[in-house]
Design goal:
The chain is α+β, with helices and mostly antiparallel strands and about 1300 residues long. About 45% of the residues lie in helices and about 10% in strands. The strands form 9 sheets. Strands 4-5-8-7-6-10 form a 6-stranded antiparallel β-barrel. Strands 20, 27, 28, 29 and 30 form a 5-stranded antiparallel β-sheet that branches. Helix 1 packs across helix 17, helix 23 (about 725-745) crosses helix 33 and helix 35 packs antiparallel against helix 36 (about 1220-1250). The relative contact order is 0.11.
Length: about 1300
């Protein structure tokens, strides 16, 4: 019924449109606008939900198996640990400014230099480090230290006005400057740093920081003084020096000494004056400096070991320019101190410094040949961003938050770009064998954000390609625009529908943009091709003919789309049943998107086709218009004078542009991937635009003609006695299936590590990879925790919890919101409160320290109680040390005590790693040592009460009176025999124990340089009470779990090994459970395999049900299922061939492939089954099967080809993504879609031609039988015998006929 179209001699098709079809045909504009308005309102609502964060987008995803016991116990432990905070102690008001390590990572390129520890390479490293430090941006935002400025005059003390708190010095300092005081004073600390305020002439006031770290005026009483020889030395800010191997290789003790003696040394403590809230940074004294230096120690102590001290090494490094004659042998000699064998020649403190430097600067696989340093193709230097940055005076308090905000803002605006520019300059100046990466954690989030913005351009590329292909295929920009609108609008509609089921959308949902581009275009092609094919049939004249034509095309397309939509939706729904929230959320969300896309195609796009027919089709003419109307505003085939009777590529006007664009694209892909992809796409777009604009619309389109003539003829072509090409294809597929099964069964493995975020060679990924290289095996420990007090079997009640809400991850140990309600267990609590339970916990802690298979600890590391607090110290032979006394408690292994009259530095040879943080050690220290009433001459409590520092008003009313009293106020009688205690809960709930932990133990550890003592710092400790009840506690282990990635089986082995260890040693506390983040990944990997198998099995089963019901035939449904199963198997083989494991990305791809690729087979099977052969009673069975296959190829083949191209094209741009997930998804999906398409045409069609049922064989019992023997086809088709003939069709039974029927067909 198209005006101006050639009419095909065919009978009038009688079809009765439904009310819905008449409404669409009669008022398409109204229907289109209604659906457009509805979609836009829903989209605005969805955007509003995202804007007000009622619906949130989770960039990381949730990969936890929250139904597993292991994950539940981990989440419960984290939640319990964070639930208990110590908030009432002044000791925690002093908190350290956050600082960010900044790494200059030097690495050898592939096939580059083998060793960077050579003179020339170390010189390049030293010069590069210097350029980084000289960068103004680094100078402004680096972590700073203060020292004396020898270029500025010394301010000599003149007088002190105690009434006005004003000091007079000459010359007067500038307001806001920082000064070090040197001398004696009743108020000011020798070596203390102060800020100058309120300058008036030569007088000024000084300020320090109070306990809340605000500036506090230094006030003087009538009796306070400053010695006459006092001096105020101008302080200068300098960046903390780079920790670098050049400092080791080119030691210069004199330069190191100079820096130390000028005061550039980190403060060891914040000293407070009795009765004052002031905390003043005071420089450490350094023996061996000149008397005029700021930090001179006039005692007779031996000189500082500048040569090997870690602080010295990191403070002053002399480059090669000052030591031109140094030899490689000398460098190797200096580097040899990084070897453990060589460290025995220096003292233990210096050796520990070298050990730390080796772990920070060299990869974990670096080693020595005896005392000779090995080679390394990767090293790094360590710097710090932090503070106080310029404009700030303090490192802590509110200023810390402000500085952190400034740092983050600077990193996002100018910081990252400045260092990227310097990095490029350094690499350009190198010899192309080595490179450097400048990166800090503070830059990573900015770099990721910038990367995601760049990667989003690939969505535009996919959008552009699909739009152009639809435009070329349909010839209408209006149709292409409507296609893109309905495709993309299904995403916000799905978001709105998702809200009642969850508040979070996972990272994987982004992938649906690319998936729905292919699916949406596929449905559009099915409906549009049905409409175009209906134009060759005779529906009569007038408006009624238009309604009939639309009804015919609508029913033919909607039936096919319904079958594929149902199978696709259920395949995604099967993925939604996965136990991993991100995969589950993706499955459900994808099912919603596909459903809305299907509805929009049947409503909005169906109306758009009618609008196109009324206002665009056959009415937009141009000078080179195609027959029946313009195609893309003209007719490309006519414009280039295409000869339809000659092969396409034999015509230069077609071949030259196509191959030129194709070759240019391939070349560009090497240098500029995005440009190459665009050029390749343009080549195929040009070809499609040309071949889709035929000048005689009464004839089948070239692709339709190819499928029904050329392709079909090749399938039935004989190749031997009784064999055809289709027979050989079936035999080939048998071989392929066998090979794929062998490959999958023997080689497909679970992943051994987390998927890399970025592709190999990307600078960010190189940084992440090299950062992992430097995690030393003895230092990069996977923490394992043991929790007490919670219910082991059901530690967390997750009722009402949104399983999609973010939890913990590798970079985030604390979830934003609770993941359930904690279940405390009274029996578990009573167990660790009992004396037997206390003894058992002490015993297991001692066992852990002495079991290398469980925890990493340093050799000769012993516990020493000093000043009522236990410290881990290196003791080579403690039993022969007269200053140590062995303590043999009632439970647990023996340990040692040291006389507090000697400094802690004199006890052993430095701190060491014990392998375990044990809360029961602190409890034991408090009961046995601090509250030991037999201590002479004074107990620890009495010493504090009589100290003006702790009780400036005297003992009476001092808060420390609460020490050594239980919660009821009863005095404690401590000592060795008092532990384990029968009154533990009352002791733990007391104010005195809280004071001991916060004001005694933690303060002593900090003051003695042990600020890194893991758990008890900041705002939490290892044991917690609430409302007088000791509820929860935990142990922390620096476990001996392998630092390198291991496979799933080995992860299970280590988990079982640790589980067995704790089950053996915790029999009283049998409700205690182990929690470790590393074992969560083990659970995820194991569940991933189970869920993939489950989803694939469910998808295949349901696909079979749908296929059987869609075709009403068991045989057709089963044959199609075989093809889908083959596709899945071959997909698994492709995973192995690509060198991948069955990880998260691959599992999702397999699930998506089933949901998407089944469409091709379903469409062909449905078309084959409904196609009826005229005069079938007189046609042999094998010929019936062939004719049905020919009819299926002719009616649906062109739509499937267009659907394949748009699906592959929508993912093609992802091949060039730097994000591994996107890249793998694009590569795998596009390749497997091609495999699915090939399987549908080269496996399913031969199967149907060979085994397809005829004459009702395999039909379901209740299938409705047709009375008429011959129905006509759903599209014009060309038979092998009569290329020019055409056919008519019914919606129910499209077929191919060699002659036209003169009858009127009723539907």
């Amino acid at each position: 019924g198209d005006e101006g179209e050639k009419k095909v001699s065919s009978p009038v098709i009688d079809i009765t449109p439904t009310k819905w079809e008449r409404a669409l045909a009669g008022s398409p504009c109204c229907c289109c606008w209604i659906w457009f308005a509805f979609a836009m309102v829903m989209t605005v609502a969805a955007m509003a939900l995202l804007q007000n964060e009622s619906l949130k987008f989770d960039q990381n995803g949730v990969w936890d198996v929250r139904g597993s016991e292991i994950q539940t116990q981990w989440d419960a432990f984290i939640q319990a640990r964070e639930a208990f905070k110590v908030v009432n102690s002044d000791a925690y008001e002093e908190r350290s400014q956050t600082f960010f390590p900044f790494y200059a990572t030097y690495y050898s390129k592939e096939e580059g230099v083998e060793n960077l520890l050579t003179a020339d390479r170390l010189k390049w490293i030293s010069e590069s480090d210097s350029k980084v430090q000289a960068l103004p941006e680094y100078q402004e935002y680096c972590q700073a230290v203060y020292g004396s400025d020898p270029t500025k005059p010394v301010h000599k003390f003149v007088s002190l006005d105690t009434a006005a708190d004003r000091i007079t010095a000459t010359p007067a300092p500038e307001a806001g400057s920082a000064l070090f005081f040197k001398g004696n004073s009743s108020i000011l600390f020798d070596g203390g740093r102060y800020h100058v305020i309120n300058v008036e002439g030569d007088s000024f006031q000084l300020a320090s920081n109070d306990n809340s770290l605000a500036e506090k005026l230094e006030q003087f009483g009538d009796l306070d003084y400053i010695a006459p020889d006092g001096e105020f030395i101008q302080a200068i800010r300098r960046c903390v020096q780079t920790v670098t191997l050049s400092a080791v290789a080119f030691r210069n003790p004199e330069e190191q000494k100079k820096g130390m003696c000028e005061g550039f040394v980190t403060s060891t403590s914040r000293q407070s004056r009795g009765g004052s809230d002031a905390f003043t940074p005071v420089l450490s004294k350094v023996p061996g400096c000149d008397p005029d230096s700021l930090v001179y120690d006039d005692s007779n102590a031996p000189p500082c070991n500048f040569s090997y001290d870690l602080q010295c090494l990191s403070t002053a490094a002399t480059g090669l320019s000052s030591a031109p004659s140094i030899t490689q042998a000398q460098i190797d000699e200096e580097l040899s101190f990084l070897c453990e064998e060589k460290q025995s020649e220096i003292d233990a403190v210096a050796a520990l410094g070298y050990k730390t430097m080796r772990q920070n600067l060299l990869p974990q696989d670096w080693g020595c040949n005896g005392k000779s340093p090995g080679k390394s193709s990767i090293v790094r230097s360590l710097m710090f961003f932090g503070g106080p940055i310029k404009g700030y005076k303090t490192l802590t308090g509110d200023a810390a938050t402000d500085q952190l905000d400034d740092l983050i803002e600077w990193a996002a605006s100018d910081g990252l770009s400045a260092f990227e520019k310097l990095e490029k300059e350094l690499n350009d100046a190198s010899d192309d064998k080595t490179n450097v990466i400048l990166m800090s954690q503070i830059f990573l989030s900015v770099a990721y954000t910038n990367l995601m913005v760049t990667e989003s351009l690939y969505v535009l590329g996919s959008f552009w390609f699909v739009f152009m292909w639809v435009w070329c295929s349909t010839g209408s920009m209006f149709i292409a625009a409507c296609c893109m609108f309905e495709t993309f609008i299904s995403l916000p509609l799905a978001m709105l529908a998702w809200k009642p089921f969850g508040d979070y959308l996972g990272f994987l949902c982004i992938m649906m943009i690319f998936v729905i581009l292919g699916i949406g275009a596929d449905d559009v092609f099915v409906l549009f091709d049905a409409w175009k094919q209906s134009g060759l049939l005779n529906f009569g004249e007038g408006e009624e003919a238009l309604a009939k034509r639309f009804a015919w095309a609508y029913r033919r397309a909607s039936g096919a789309m319904l079958v594929t939509t149902v199978t696709t939706v259920f395949c995604f729904f099967a993925a939604g049943l996965a136990e991993i929230p991100s995969i589950s959320g993706f499955g459900y969300f994808a099912a919603l998107v596909v459903t809305f896309d299907f509805l929009l195609v049947l409503t909005f796009f169906a109306s758009a086709i009618l609008i196109y027919h009324r206002y665009f089709e056959a009415k937009m003419k141009s000078s080179c218009a195609c027959a029946g109307g313009s195609h893309m505003f003209c007719c490309p085939a006519t414009c280039i004078r295409l000869d339809w009777n000659r092969p396409l590529f034999a015509q230069p006007r077609v071949a030259f542009p196509f191959f030129f664009l194709l070759i240019v694209g391939v070349v560009l892909c090497v240098f500029y991937p995005m440009g190459g992809a665009i050029s390749i796409c343009l080549a195929f777009i040009f070809l499609q635009a040309t071949t889709s604009s035929q000048d005689d619309v009464s004839q089948p389109r070239p692709i339709e003609k190819f499928l029904q003539e050329t392709f079909y003829a090749q399938l039935i072509k004989p190749v031997g006695k009784g064999l055809t090409v289709s027979s050989l294809l079936l035999l080939s597929w048998v071989v392929i299936v066998i090979l794929a099964a062998i490959v999958v069964g023997t080689s497909l493995r679970l992943p051994e590590e987390n998927e890399k975020f970025l592709t190999e060679g990307h600078r960010l990924q190189i940084f992440l990879d090299t950062d992992a290289e430097f995690q030393s095996q003895s230092n990069a420990m996977s923490h394992v925790y043991v929790a007490f007090g919670l219910d082991k079997a059901e530690a967390l009640d997750r009722t009402g919890v949104d399983m999609g809400q973010p939890g913990t991850s590798w970079g985030k140990m604390v979830p934003d919101e609770p993941l359930g309600v904690l279940n405390f267990n009274e029996a578990a609590r009573q167990s660790f409160l009992s004396q037997e339970g206390q003894s058992e916990i002490i015993g297991v802690c001692d066992t852990i320290r002495n079991t290398p298979a469980i925890a990493n600890s340093d050799a000769d590391c012993h516990l020493v109680n000093w000043g009522s607090v236990t410290f881990p110290r290196i003791l080579a032979d403690p039993d022969s040390d007269p200053g140590l006394m062995k303590v043999k408690p009632a439970s647990g292994a023996a340990y040692y005590t040291a006389d507090q009259s000697q400094p802690l530095t004199a006890v052993g040879n430095g701190f060491c790693a014990t392998g375990v943080y044990c809360f029961m050690y602190d409890i034991r220290d408090y009961i046995v040592h601090f509250c030991d009433a037999t201590r002479s001459p004074l107990t620890h409590k009495r010493e504090m009460l009589e100290s003006p520092r702790y009780c400036p008003e005297g003992p009476s009313g001092c808060k420390y009176e609460a020490l050594c009293k239980d919660a009821s106020g009863n005095d404690m009688n401590g000592g060795v025999g008092a532990f384990p205690s029968d009154n533990l809960e009352s002791i733990m709930a007391s104010e005195g124990y809280d004071l001991y932990i916060t004001d005694v133990a933690n303060a002593q550890r900090r003051q003695n340089g042990m600020s890194y003592d893991a758990l008890p710092r900041s705002t939490r400790q290892g044991a917690f009470t609430q409302d007088g009840t000791f509820k929860f506690a935990f142990l922390s282990l620096n476990s001996s779990l392998p630092g390198a990635s291991v496979n799933h089986d080995e992860q299970v082995f280590h988990h079982d090994r640790f589980e067995a260890f704790f089950e053996k040693h915790l029999t009283v506390n049998n409700q205690a459970f182990m929690a470790a983040f590393v074992f969560n990944w083990m659970t995820t990997v194991g569940t991933l395999l189970q869920n993939t198998i489950q989803s694939v099995a469910m998808a295949l089963a349901f696909s079979w049900v749908v296929l059987v019901l869609a075709t009403w035939n068991l045989i057709v449904g089963t044959l199609t299922l075989i093809v889908v199963a083959v596709i899945v198997l071959v997909s698994g083989g492709l995973i192995v061939a690509a060198g991948w494991n069955l990880g998260i990305i691959e599992s999702i791809c397999v699930i998506v492939v089933i949901g998407v690729s089944v469409d091709y087979s379903v469409h062909l099977a449905h078309a084959w089954e409904v196609h009826e052969v005229p005069d079938a009673e007189n046609v042999p069975l094998h010929e019936q099967r062939r004719l049905k296959a020919q009819g299926a190829l002719g009616t649906i083949g062109i739509s499937l080809i267009s659907g394949l191209v748009t699906s592959v094209g929508s993912t093609l741009f992802l091949w060039f993504s730097s994000i591994n997930f996107f890249k793998k998804f694009g590569m795998f999906l596009s390749i497997t879609l091609c495999v699915s398409f090939v399987a549908a045409f080269l496996l399913l069609i031969p199967l149907l031609m060979t085994f397809g049922p005829t004459g009702g064989c395999g039909d379901l019992p209740w299938r409705k039988k047709k009375d008429q023997p011959a129905k006509s086809s759903g599209a014009p088709s060309v038979s092998s015998g009569s290329p020019g003939s055409t056919a008519v069709a019914t919606a129910e039974a499209p077929t191919t006929a060699t002659t036209a029927s003169p009858e009127v067909t009723e539907i």
